[in-house]
Amino acid sequence: MQQNCPNCGAVLTENYCARCGQKSSVKRLSWHGFVEEVFHFFTHIEKGFLKTTKQVIIHPGTVSKNYLDGKRKIYHKPVSFFIIWVAIYLVVYNLGVAVSRYPNATTGALFSFDPRSTAVLNKYRSFIEILIIPVIAFFNWLIVARPRFYYIEILSIFFYTISFFYMLLTVQTLCFLLLNLNFRTDLFNMISPVAFISWGAYAAYDFFRNYAIRFLVVRLMLATVVGVASYFFLVSLVIKLLIALNIG
Question: Which of 93, 94, 129, 143 could be joined to 223 by an S-S link, Cβ 3.0–4.6 Å?
Answer without folding.
Answer: 143
